[in-house]
Amino acid sequence: MLAATAGATLSTSGCLRQVRDVVVPDNIKQLSVTITTLPADADRQGVRIAGRLEDAFEAVGIDVSIDVRSEIEFRRTVLYDHEFDICVGCHPGGTDPDFLYEALYSRYADESGWQNPFGFADQDVDELLDAQRNADGDDRRKVVTEVLDAIATDQPFVPICIPEEHRVVRTDRFDDWEAGHLATRHGYLGLDSIAAAEQLNVAHTDSRPTENLNPIAADYRGRGTIIELLYDSVATQNGTNALQPWLASSWEWDGNTVSIDLRENCTFHDGEPVTAGDVAFTYQFLQDISLGNHEVPSPAPRFRAQADAIETIDVVHANRLEMTMDTNHTVGERAFLVPILPAHVWRERASDVMGPGGPTIAQGTTEGVVANNVPPIGSGPFRFERRTEGDLLVLTRFDDHFTRRLDIDLPEPTVGECRFRIHPDSTGATRVVQEGTADVTSLPLRASLVDTVSESDDVRLLESPSWTFYFLGFNTRKAPFGNFQFRRVVAQLIDKEWLCNEIFDGRARPIASPVPDEWTPAELEWDGYDPETPFLGSDGEVDVSSAKAAFEAAGFRYDDRGRLRARQ
Hints:
signal, 20% strand, alpha+beta, disordered N terminus, five-stranded mixed β-sheet, six-stranded mixed β-sheet, D-Maltodextrin-Binding Protein, domain 2, ABC transporter substrate-binding protein, 27% helix, transport, SBP_5
């Protein structure tokens, strides 16, 4: 009997231990978080923000590591594969608050690109995002305010700050730099060429355009400035200014139907005519890059929200088409900013990729996504000439472009050649402009370099409006990041004011709302602190006891060693 009892005790001890672990969860591990960001040579501010957050997490009992990835790998990890916990980077933002539709609409949660990389899903927010697309005037402003209040509460991402944009330009070879924003095509058109200078030398710090010129590749594209030079769009926008006709000579609204007249006798760089059929094809392709070859549509990784605004497209004749929009006119016209693709080039790219290669995306991969598109065939003011990977991209003027016509009053390419020379960082790019071997730095300078620029009669520091913003993003598909209370506490571990002063050298402004100032409601205006998620500490240092109390109030628990538990 004693032997039997001993055996029974031994045989049941494992079960008793499992029962105890269920009732008293001593086996719960410490919460572990990975912060994905870019290396210092690509984004020094971003990796420093990640470093400060790492310190804050460690202080409040969270196990943390930083996953530093190249710009291409960062975008594939976050935008294509959604394999991240928290990410820190610069969001492309937008000049109109409708960019939030793309950023947060739940239907996009499993798609690739900047459309909802956070996997955020909230029916109430969806309804508000829909409503702002169909309201006008004061009614739209009220709905946008409701959207902003809702996301300030839920914090699917934390808007941190808007950085100043400074570039260095030379004025001894070209003038009139203020006429065009250098994040758009307008910055490179209409320049006043002094002494008939025919070559514009651009110091560029991103080598990706020398490797890939696919306009829908989210992993290779930033703002798409070079794409705007190579491809036309129906309309154009110079920075934060209003839209104006570009490839279109005009458009006219009749309710939710817009009739678009294209400029006549336009051609692609290979000599093929640009027609209303190419415009219609572009929007159909962006809505479904498989062109119906998949059981469900496969939207493009870029321009998703713009194309989604279009319900129907009818080609009336070669230079005229009609579209019906499921939005107000303001949102509908933003669809006119996508690059127009030649159907005779891109139609064959709707086929599936055979075998491994290219990014993996949830809705299926076609040749259109993975093609590097070199040489690109567009119809823009410049055409592709040659490249040296990692070193140089040369574009030449497209003399048949419509902006060269005498009867059209639009900025035109005034140089015969535009050379983008790659430099490893802002320091090197700034140096070659100051030395006179380059005319302009194309991308914003690192904040710490701005005060080192020596201005003179020939060298100027140019400041431009910015609509991009730094952010901390959560992958809400994973626990505990799907818990809005957890996200709100994390948002309170970030001293945005301190970051702007210390990491951005005072050349950024903290924000609680990611939209342009004119759309920010009074309750979300920055007044020395974040009105929704104020920092739990002072001078950049987290108040550990307050932060731990906030996590506990949110339903999380600490073990006897001060470690935040991985689950509630």
